[in-house]
Amino acid sequence: MRMNKKVLTLAGVALTAMSLAACGNNDKNKASGDLNVTLKANPVTLDPAKTIETPSSSMQTQSFEGLLKYDKNNKVVLGEAASQPKVTNDGKTWTFTLKKGLKWSNGDPVTAQDYVASMRHWADPKTKSQAADRVADLENYEQVSKGQAPTSALGVKALGKDKVQFTFSKKLPTVNVRNNFASLKPVNHRVLSKEGSKYGSTSDKAVYNGPYKVVNWTGGSDDNWSYVKNNQYYGKKNVHMNKVNVQVTKDNNTAQNLFKSGKVQETSVTADYVKGNKNNKELHTSLMATQYYLYFNGKNDLTKNENFRQAVNYAFDNNQLAKKVLQDGSVGATGWVPKGDMKNPKNGQDFAEEAGHLQKQNKKKAQDYWKATQKDLGKKNMTLNLLADNTDDQKQVAEYLQSTLQKQFKGLKVEVTTLPHAQHVSRDFAGKFELNLTDWNSDVPDASDFLSLLKTGNKVNFTNNTDQKLDDLLNQANDGTKSASERYKLLQEANKQVHTNADGVPLYTAAQAHLVSKHVTGLNYGPFNTVAQYQYAQWKK
Amino acid sequence: MRKYIIKRLLMMVLTLFIVATLTFFLMKMIPGSPLGNTMKLSKAQQLAVEKQYGLNKPVWQQYLSYMTGVLHGNFGMSYQYNSTTVASLIGHRVGPSILISFQALVLGVIVGILLGCVGALKKGTWADATSSTLAVIGISFPSFILAILLQYYLGFKLGWFPVASWDGFPSTILPTIALSAVPMAQVSRFVRTEMVEVLNSDYILLAKAKGLSVPQVVFHHALKNSIIPALTLIGPLAVTLITGSMVVENIFSVPGIGELFINSVLANDYPVIMGLTMFYCLLLCGILLLTDVVYGLVDPRILSKEKGEH
Questions:
Q1: A412-419 and A382-389: which strand pairing?
Q2: How far apart are CA B55 and CA B24, in angstroms?
Q3: ipTM
Q4: Is A149 near chain B, with CB under 8 Å?
Q5: Nearest by CB to A53, which of B33, B36, B260?
Q6: pLDDT one-digit tens code per residue, A80-102
Q7: Which of A203, A3, A234 lies closest to A102, judged by CA?
Q8: How far is B155 from B149, CA to CA, in rounded Å?
Q9: Which of A519, A525, B146, B299 is the most exposed, fewest CB within 10 Å of its CB?
Q10: Which of the four pLDDT bands, split at 50, 70 and 90, describes residue A8?
Q11: pTM of the model
Q12: β pairing state of A435-441 and A382-389
């Protein structure tokens, strides 16, 4: 009978545990207290110089602030800078003055030296920064990053305690520099030199100058931590949520269940959810500065054929692709540059809208070009391979492209190869593809960033095609001598040239989707600042 | 026995060495760079970072320097989490994985034994059919489906358990139940088959003839011999649970080790791939050795056979 007693005891323990666990609250109507949110993946670091992925970027957005910052509506405004920077006539030197009385969370004053230390740390080859593109335009960056010059040679210096001067190697478009300054964060130079390579590897190995302090983050393998209001932050009066708790939730269904049960008030969701919940008022979709393209390999007989490239350019209905296939808030591309990217400096109009509908389906023209292709190559039947990422949405897009091409072009067979992203990228660089479904994500509101994808010598011009006219237009636009409106005109011309040449097909501008509780207000997501800023969140009254 | 264990330990070292070497060279054959931002880095920037990591050296040199590090207990730094050592990454994540796997194993084995006993004692009745059906469902029903159902009904709809979190015992209950289905099913099938055989043996007949009650016959005499074969299952089951719990971990937001492995392979994070492969290998060898030793202790016939051999 002893065994029976044990079994009964075990059953009793299990039942007690179940009833204890059942004591959870239902927080569906939570409208006060801590804000609870999820992140899709683990952040890697609190060191801005080492950050290349969204989760770390999200964590730093809450806890650090640069000279400029994004406001509630994602406009670039003054951050720690007391006033707008003084820019020299040649546009190369930018001088900022810091606000008075700025402090780090440990009570240290924020000084110009902290900005200098951050830039030097970024460019130092020992940092192994993969985000070096952010500081690569500073004077002497190249020599410093190769270890051929000391970090002190970098184009940044402190002019006293509250003035910091940046010198760039060439004149850059003002809007690009301002956007970059909203992303460049300082480091407390004392803490950096104390922690060395361990700086930012846990929340204890960094101090914060932003709206929140990161608390209880024990490093890249931690799934739970909090942001606690930073009482040293100059704008603390406008920070409404005292504490934000973060839980890494990798599974989409779990994130939705946590949101629906009221356990979290903000979470990101995927296309599957968006498709079935379009009328949900708590669902927010926003466009990102990410455009998807279909590239042609310029070294393949079929894909280098201009008639074929034109045929494919007229084959797709991008609107249908976005609205019927993706259904996640993405919009069909009307041209090479996505909507919401660059603005006309004269009238504030959107670059893509002013360019007009350059990318349109025309089945008749597509057919004519296809017939001309068959004639050019002297073949009726051809097979092509389409390379894509192996994520669900990319597989769906690839299948749509495959079926459209096969339906419209009799004799063409399209095979799809999907690979994990890292392997896909290695095939891009090796030129091992025929058709390539790929994307570009920009950090600056500048059409040049997208148009340069097809420039000769750009290492991400995977088409391998060269177009002298396009190169000339882009070189002129970026030579540092043009006024903003002259430059804008040149970029519009370059855009037309890209469409004439048809080296790739712009397909759609990607969107992201979030669920935000109806009790929370103030969370907005922008194309360049895609993460939530909890300093602006507050409970609805 | 001691000689046997020492021999097995030496074999473990050799196995580890072979696994590490094979993994290192296979891993280097995976296309793609371990750097996550190659699209945005200029060629010079990329070369500079690769040089810092020693990735510009020939593969055999990289192998030698890695193995030298391992011999000194240094498994390197993760490329993805580039301020974190591999040992600390694994160290932080292995605890939750082992905890839910251990709980699932204990729950699965206990319930499995009970179901197996019921099946054997009530052979041919509805109770036997139910126990068999449960076992078939346990084996054929993927644990992640069970996890989703448990989360939806017990977590979300009824609110009895946390939907997903890692915050004390209650948050381990649903992942434990989801993972326990397979061990429960396998153990119950083994125990039932063995128990049916044992119940027909002479010594059970003798026990019954002596007038012992059914529970005494079952728990004191029949069960002990019936669970020995199930012991052989426990080792491999434990390893399968620890290494195979990734999807369940993801569903319940358990900060475990499974996803780290998949991500490290997808991101070509060489030091983490190596560290985890060697960890899994060590775990498998260790558990198999332990199972063999325990098996020998429970069934002395095996021990004497080993003694005879060695």
A1: parallel
A2: 13
A3: 0.74
A4: no
A5: B36
A6: 999 999 999 888 999 999 999 99
A7: A234
A8: 9
A9: B299
A10: very low
A11: 0.82
A12: parallel
